[in-house]
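hi! just following up on the protien thing from before. the input was this:
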Amino acid sequence: MKYGIVAFPSKELQDLANGYRKRYDPHYAQITPHMTIKGVFDANDKEIEEVAKEIKKVTDKHGPFELTVSKVSTFAPITNAIYFKAETNEELMNLHKDLNYNFFGDEPAYAFIPHITIAQKLTSGEHDDIIGQLKMVGVNHTETIDRIHLLYQLENGSWNVFETFRLEGAN
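and the predicted 3d structure came back as:
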């Protein structure tokens, strides 16, 4: 089964993201707006219990972190995805490191760019038409994230929460 680890932002930020996702993200119905902390990995029923125990150890060590999104950006020309860019901070980067290196699944293939996707799988024309407009509208939001979620993927492609973990460490 496929799993991943994410942080869900507040309803306010989810609503803002969904305003764009409804129009520009074909995965809109499959998952709530989120910031991926550990990308997709495979595990069986026995392995996922061990993964959950290890995530608990990590979250016992890490405290809540500040999530600040302050601009709209894009991964173009690599991919025509548009996202709310989250500012990096030490707490978030350390959490990502502990959940991706010497942890279950493969290490990330790309550098960690914390973000919340608002548009993807766009044609080049669609991307070029909307990126300037979205950058002008912008985003400015700060909140505290105090939990992360282990998700699993259903056969229809949608994602559900397997377990939620509070960030209880002192940083």
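Residues 45-61 form the longest helix (17 residues).
The chain has one domain: 2-166.
cheers
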